[in-house]
Structures are given as structure tokens and as C-alpha cells.
Design goal:
Elements: E1 2-7, H1 11-24, E2 28-33, H2 36-45, E3 50-53, H3 62-72, E4 78-82, H4 86-96, E5 100-103, H5 108-119, H6 127-138, H7 151-161, H8 166-173, H9 177-191, H10 196-205
Parallel strand pairs: 1-2, 1-3, 3-4, 4-5
Length: 211
């Protein structure tokens, strides 16, 4: 029996994934979690063949969850299913230990293909992510200021670049406005920028984020 744990704070998304996979696998069992704490509790109680994990969740985000899951069980396969374009997070999730990255607007066949490849011991990497990884490898000797950002800072930077205000980001990530403001300050300091407009320009100039 294939055991799949789906971690996403949207119940409708979890139901959709379950429906897709039930149509492709005859013998399958599902677990569901909506946040990091629920995920860790379920992992402690039962073994899973693969985890399908979102990045944008309240509290601890998916990037933090990947790192903790790898500490708990280094061999546990993780497929990221995210709304974010590969440009924004693919490099980070692979560096953190994920086994695949897929966007939520992908066709069902891609989800099944990704799971099959990962369960076969391979990485699932889209052509877009391959290009990013290749570019990153070629520039490995060049120190990139973005690498100094924490995972949460990187996420906040991406949301600022999308045009969202500090209040909107705080609501989306279920964090306080003060906390988001602190992350914003760290981003400005580390990247030597002055304001949100410069953050947006930096993201565009460095091709961070979707086109």
C-alpha cells in the first residue's frame, strides 16, 4: 500500500490531490495535515512513503518543515507542491533536501509522474528547474547576497516584490505586522537596499521570481 501524507493549509487543495491520486493508484492511503505541528505529530506516529508539502503555510513554512523532516527522517521523500514559480523557491527546496518541485497549476499527469519518479529513487526536476540549477552551479563561485537571507526572509522578500504590503503579508503568513517589519528590515540591511521599491527592482534585476 502506498502511504501519502499531504501537507497544505487548504482543505480543498488536499481533497483535489487525493482525488487525482485515487484515480491513478489502486492501493493507496492518505494522511492530511494543515500546518507544521500537525505534520510532525503524524510523522512520529506513522511511516509514510512520500510527503506532498506546500511552502506557504501559517507558522513554520514549508522550507523550515523540510529541514526538520530531514532531521527526523533523512530518507523520507518530499515533493513540494507550490503556487510559487520555480524561479522563486526551487533552488532553495532542493538545497534543503526536497526530492521534487511542482507548481499547483500543473496537470494531474505531472503530479503522478513526479511521485513515480521520486518513489523510484530519483529526483523530479522540471526543465525550468534544471535550467536554474545549472545556472546556479555555473555561478557557484560568485557570492550572491540573496544566499544570506533566511528562508522566511526570502519568502517575505518575494511577497514584497509581488506588491503586497507588510499588513497583507502578516495576514497571509499568520504572523504579526511587527515580525514582518523585522524581516523586511533584515532584508534591506542584507541586500543594502532602502525601501520596497528597491526590493522590487532587485528581484527583477536578479531574475528572482516569476516572469
Amino acid at each position: 500500500m502506498l502511504k501519502v501524507l499531504i501537507v497544505d493549509d487548504h482543505a480543498l487543495l488536499r481533497s483535489g490531490v487525493i482525488k487525482i491520486l485515487e484515480e491513478h493508484y489502486n492501493d493507496i492511503k492518505f494522511g492530511e495535515a494543515s500546518c507544521a505541528s500537525e505534520t510532525f505529530e503524524i510523522i512520529k506516529k506513522q511511516k509514510w512513503d512520500i510527503i506532498i508539502l506546500d511552502i506557504n503555510m501559517p507558522g513554520r513554512n514549508g522550507l523550515e518543515v523540510i529541514k526538520e523532516l530531514k532531521r527526523m527522517n533523512h530518507n523520507l521523500p518530499i515533493l513540494i507542491l507550490s503556487m510559487y514559480h520555480e524561479d522563486e523557491f526551487a533552488l532553495r527546496v532542493f538545497k534543503d533536501g526536497a526530492d521534487g518541485y511542482l507548481m499547483k497549476d500543473s496537470v494531474p499527469e505531472k503530479l503522478v509522474n513526479a511521485i513515480d519518479q521520486i518513489l523510484d529513487g530519483k529526483k523530479y526536476i522540471s526543465p525550468e528547474a534544471v535550467e536554474l540549477l545549472t545556472r546556479d552551479f555555473e555561478n557557484v563561485s560568485k557570492k550572491n547576497p540573496i544566499e544570506s537571507l533566511s528562508d522566511r526572509e526570502f519568502e517575505v522578500m518575494s511577497l514584497i516584490a509581488s506588491g503586497k504590503t507588510v499588513s497583507q503579508i502578516a495576514e497571509e503568513l499568520s504572523l504579526s505586522v511587527k515580525t514582518i517589519s523585522t524581516y523586511r528590515t533584515h532584508i534591506l540591511e542584507k541586500l543594502k537596499l532602502k525601501n520596497n521599491a528597491e526590493i522590487m527592482r532587485y528581484v527583477i534585476d536578479n531574475k528572482v521570481g516569476s516572469e
